[in-house]
């Protein structure tokens, strides 16, 4: 199982709508609003790294009101 954590910055005041949209995407397992340098943390899982990359690139990053993302890829076997 491939896992990534995506840190998201979005437009001011759009956090709730972005969180709601993230929850509808297949592969997004957890979504949390956070304090600090980023607004939202999303945990994304997939059986293959390629489909994980596609979910992040073509679904998550295309959500309107998202300004930027930082993706942290998990390392297999390090649980």
From TrEMBL:
The lineage of its organism: Archaea, Nitrososphaerota, Nitrososphaeria, Nitrosopumilales, Nitrosopumilaceae. It comes from the Archaea. This is Transcriptional regulator, AsnC family. It comes from Candidatus Nitrosarchaeum limnium BG20. Signal peptide: none annotated. Residues 6-73 form the Transcription regulator AsnC/Lrp ligand binding domain.
């Amino acid at each position: 199982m491939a896992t990534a954590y995506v840190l998201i910055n979005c437009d001011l005041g759009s956090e709730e709508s972005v969180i709601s949209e993230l929850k509808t995407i297949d592969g997004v397992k957890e979504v949390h609003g956070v304090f600090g340098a980023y607004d939202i943390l999303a945990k994304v899982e997939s059986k293959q790294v390629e489909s994980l990359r596609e979910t992040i690139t073509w679904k998550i990053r295309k959500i309107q009101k998202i300004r930027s993302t930082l993706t942290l890829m998990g390392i297999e076997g390090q649980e």
